[in-house]
Amino acid sequence: MNKIWWKALAVVIMTYVIFWGLLGPVPRQPILNESIRNVSFHVPLWFAMIILLVTSVIYSVRYLRKGRMDDDLIAVEFANTAILFGILGCLTGAIWANFTWGDPWPNDPKLNSVAVGMLMYMAYLILRGSFDDEQRRARISAVYNIFVFAVFIPLIFILPRMTDSLHPGNGGNPAFGKYDMDNSLRMVLYPAVIGLTLIGVWITQLRVRLRRVKVAMDD
Amino acid sequence: MTESIRQMGALMRKEFLLEWRQRYALNGMLLYIVSAVFVCYLSFNARRGQLTPIVWNALFWIILLFTAINAIAKSFVQERAGRQLYYYTLASPQQIILSKILYNTVLMLVLALLGFSVYAFVLGNPVKDVPLYLVALVLGAIGFSASLTLVSGIASKAENPSTLMAVLSFPTMLPLLLELLKISKNALDGLDRSISWKEVGTVLAIDAIVLVLSWLLFPFLWRS
């Protein structure tokens, strides 16, 4: 039983986030109106994605240092879950943008950066598919995973901040914390980050187990 | 230290010799960029000075990107696996990757300068600040060769290197390309140089990241 406490925690947190995110008090803002509730869903998805990607890179580094096939398996599954969260983040963002910016995919540097980042990680999956030898696939895709992460971080965090962007905190726009956030929103946002990360780890754990079973059956 | 620099010099010399002996590859690259420029020239109805600066600039960098990918893709493919194994017994992997990056930088510089002169010759030269444009070309050559050399090392291990090269390199080149486009657009419009310094700094930072990563990651790559 001591291993499932965090799954229970994830369920509790996410139930709270979904109910309180949709029903709880939120600040009144012009243009944003009720759509500000998306802060509790759209923003934590990206936080969780970055956390999952960092974990994936850590496991890739571990694979290169120790050479255990299991680490490679975990790295790819964390990247997979991160891609899923990225796609969900794009979708929630598109809904939000449709109502506040008048266009589901406005020409915004942050969006384009994320699209390119997604392409990079898709390429990572394609790269994995093009090897027959397991050891080789593991080593080379670990190298690419680390390389891509190091390019992805400036692409998504630094470059959009240097140009004009619709997103808060970029291109001279004030960051979210300054005007739009208040404590009632924070009470949902921070738990949502933790909850979604836990859900991501949970998905990854299930997929890793599935893979381990497949590997064991192949042998 | 001096010893390793001497070894790297020898490796560089080997790259140049290899290129010189198989001159068709080098000539092929030169012809590639010239004909790509000419195709673009003809596609735009062969009119000089008709392109808006933004199209002129973007077109040139896209030509350069494709040329770079084609030129650098062969840096690991052209040598047999056995011969590569032999190099690895002679020198450290860091020396090998650095010498390849340096060699590719020189190659890219030659290609970029040739491409720029032909491009400016046939399509007209609207660049108002040529030295800054050349700085962008140099920074681009370093960044392109650093990231593409590592990517070509990755792709050469896989089953279908040529497709994989494009798939892996386009997205990873994009941050660099966007900043380079900004610098060269500033140079094109002849804006004050102080405006471009921020972008130059960013490109230098990206170049540094990519170089350090190649240095760190290549030893793991060559072992397989």
What does the largest sheet of chain A look like? none
The average pLDDT score of chain B comes to 85
Radius of gyration of chain B: 18 Å
Major sheet characteristics of chain B: none
Helix content of chain B: over 70%
Structural class of chain B: mainly alpha
Number of contiguous helices of chain A: 7
Taking the alpha carbons of the first and last residues of chain A, their distance comes to 31 Å
Query: Quaternary status of these chains?
Result: heterodimer
How would you describe this structure to a colleague?
The complex is a heterodimer of chains A (219) and B (224). Chain A has 219 residues and is an all-alpha fold. Chain A has one domain (5-218): Up-down Bundle (Four Helix Bundle (Hemerythrin (Met), subunit A)). Helix content of chain A is 77%, strand content 0%. Chain A has 7 helices and no strands. Chain A has helices at 5-23, 39-66, 69-100, 109-129, 134-162, 176-179, 183-218. In chain A, helix 3 (69-100) runs antiparallel to helix 4 (109-129) and helix 4 runs antiparallel to helix 5. Chain A is globular, with a radius of gyration of 19 Å. The two termini of chain A are 31 Å apart. Chain B has 224 residues and is mainly alpha-helical. Chain B has one domain (2-222). Chain B contains 8 helices and no strands. In chain B, helix 2 packs antiparallel against helix 3 and helix 2 (23-43) packs parallel to helix 5. The longest helix of chain B is centred in the middle third of the chain and has 31 residues, at 93-123. Chain B is globular. The model of chain B has no long low-confidence stretch (mean pLDDT 85). Classes of the chains: A mainly alpha (219), B mainly alpha (224).
